[in-house]
TrEMBL record:
The lineage of its organism: Bacteria, Bacillati, Actinomycetota, Actinomycetes, Micrococcales. Residues 20-164 form the CinA C-terminal domain. The keyword Membrane does not apply. GO terms for molecular function: hydrolase activity. It comes from Miniimonas arenae. Keywords: Hydrolase. Pfam families: CinA. InterPro entries: CinA-like_C, CinA_C. This is Nicotinamide-nucleotide amidohydrolase family protein.
Amino acid sequence: MASRAGSGSGASALAASPAAVRVVAALRRRSWTVAVAESLTAGLVTDALVRVPGASAVLRGGVTAYAADVKVGVLGVPGDLVARDGVVTGHVARAMARGACALLHADVGIATTGVAGPGPADGVPTGTVVLAVVWPDGEATRTWRLAGLRPALRASAASLAVALADGVLGG
């Protein structure tokens, strides 16, 4: 017998987080749209937003820019910045968020970059997470050093990115 969508134990696992609900509501109130640029979270932030009913009214899309050349070529992160500082910096995260806004014609950009492991990358330790949110009249960047295994680090980074957006948008 086939199960019905939304029934069973899997339905609660797909529920939207309270922070994501507040972000979508705040965007709707302002008639703003959002674009997401993700590296280490590889779509988890976008997924968190689309779990909210009505997210299609505000979410323009997301770009998974895992490789440095994608950050540069698709999102417009300055190549000299990446060459000088690497990809796990606040400057790169902000440039990713701005690039997502420009590419997808959005008012707000959310970006994630960091190292999920299992080891360091380019001298940056595992668990380093850099997040940025840009919006028409501001920007915010946060850096965390998290502990845990790769799946937990990625999930925590996505949750922190949504929480940062919630905080700055006053969801």
